[in-house]
Amino acid sequence: MKNKNLVGLLLSSSLFVLGFFIHGNIALYFNLSGLLIVCGGTLTASLVSFKFSQITIVFKVLMSAYRSPIKKETEIVNILIDLSIRSRAEGILSLQRQENETSILFLRRALGCLVDGYQIEQIRDILNTEMYFFKMRREDSERMVRSIADYFPAFGIIGSVVGLITMLGGIGDTSVILRAIPIALTSTLYGLIFSNFFFLPFASVIKERTNQELLLQKIILEGVIAINSEMNSVILKTKLESFLTPSDRIGNLVSYAKIRERFNIEKRE
Asked: Which residue has the higher pLDDT, 99 or 149?
């Protein structure tokens, strides 16, 4: 996570917690029974709905999204341009060295197809298939997290119902009613907080990370195919910069003077 994001997260979280302190004792918002009903019920529903191995994969995806930095599009473009220059100067088999060194699995696979002499259509088909199933797996992870996020409010309501039943059963006994009220109210609170403060944002992180990685994979796909077809490095640079935002593009725009000269446009006074 970037430093600016971390600072923003700490500040916004502090404001959120401060709202609980302003008008009351923070201990009033803690109730073990309500917490056990919400967390235990959600965990049970998750284990019934999904295999433990699937939940483990989702955990690893989230850890990777927060802890492993992703390369920027400009870095991938620069790598591919460098590979293009090397392949034209030293031959396509010189890329074997880069295949073994790079940390990007998709780029390594693409370079592996390249050095093994696959045809362009074969490379495109293999990499498109990998991109498709990568997207499918990530969408499954996102769907699981959103499903878990939906379980929390439901079990929060269940906790509230348990508290209400206890209150009705203790009519006439003030001590029973006072013990049941926190369960009824805090269970709904816990369900909403866990769902909206944690798991829905987790699902958004997975979706955003997936979109970023798919963009990088698309850049790699087009770059490797261009290298295989021995496209000129300058043309390759211009093509790959189409994936970048205007502020990230490396080269300068062609001046108006050159445009007028190329198309024989007379300068107006």
From this structure: 149
